[in-house]
Amino acid sequence: MSSLLEQLIEAFRILPGVGQKTAQRMAYHVLEREREGGRRLAAVLADAVERVGHCERCRDFSEAPVCATCASQARDRHQLCVVESPADRLAIEQATGYRGLYFVLQGRLSPLDGIGPREIGLDRLAQRLAEGEVHELIVATNPTVEGEATAHYLAQIARQHSVRPSRLAHGVPLGGELEYVDRGTLSHAFGSRSEME
Amino acid sequence: MSSLLEQLIEAFRILPGVGQKTAQRMAYHVLEREREGGRRLAAVLADAVERVGHCERCRDFSEAPVCATCASQARDRHQLCVVESPADRLAIEQATGYRGLYFVLQGRLSPLDGIGPREIGLDRLAQRLAEGEVHELIVATNPTVEGEATAHYLAQIARQHSVRPSRLAHGVPLGGELEYVDRGTLSHAFGSRSEME
Ligand SMILES: [Zn+2]
Ligand SMILES: [Zn+2]
Predict the structure, then answer these.
(1) Residue B60 — very low, low, confident or very high, per pLDDT cuts 50/70/90?
(2) Does ipTM surpass 0.90 in this model?
(3) What domains sit in chain A, N to C, each tagged with a CATH number?
(4) pTM of the predicted protein model
């Protein structure tokens, strides 16, 4: 049976980019200097993995059935911005003055991995567009091969429902991940998005 | 009141080297792909911060009053290796064939920060040397200014109790941290440690 310290080091390795050495440093750091913070992390983490689910409107993370953004009366219901991940959504929300709503794919089209339209919620998105409230679909997938393919698919769905598709202006570096673009660039790209042909 | 997700991101920031972006990635990663691992991390972390204390013999982390190494009958009680931190102790244990005991300072002499001999347990170390069981004191502090000053102090205490002080061979890079030395170098340096004059 391994010691609690060994178990703790092992447990930290579930975190992204955390190998054996980093996990050791984390365990030692918490035990040496951050017991109170460690206690709090343990409590919040236990609570979050049980209670954070997905918003039934936008698929973003949410504790409630409908997230605060989707429930807000202050957001513009005519604009819907589609992103691949919650991190991308957060990046846009923090960098731009966007006041519309979001739709989080939680992935992108990737037929080779068995990820088709259903897996990223496009049936639900189509339903939503059919309701007629959305006028503009802002496509903010990542500028990767799969992201671009997803963007074209999204534009098709939009047009089928007479919704105007638009996409972020070039400025986001090709092959890059939206999440890592600096705020200024992202804000500019978001502001000068163009209609999709 | 911030959302559970925001609280989780904030809580991850207690970890060393984890800023806002990394904390976000950790939270999203756990919620997207590692709920079971997150549950386990929360449980082990909560347990560890309550139950992991310090060994009363060597000051290393331990759930029991005396750690497994100090309690072991298989270790050579005539050799005592002094290190600054539990991470250094672990590095030596994993890299070398050392079968003696350890003493973990949990710091180093740093008069400007108010860290004197008592704060790093040197009174207890002196007591231990006075018991007469230890024949060789292997000084494995880091090759930094404060680590060197601590090493000289340790050598003095050893001599006062007629214990032979030794130190790791040169080979550990100057100004570096023991914890990051590759195994081969560390093993070689440990093997060719020399008596301190
Ligand atoms: Zn929502
Ligand atoms: Zn011990």
Answers:
(1) very high
(2) no
(3) 3-51 (1.10.8.420), 61-167 (3.40.1360.10)
(4) 0.77
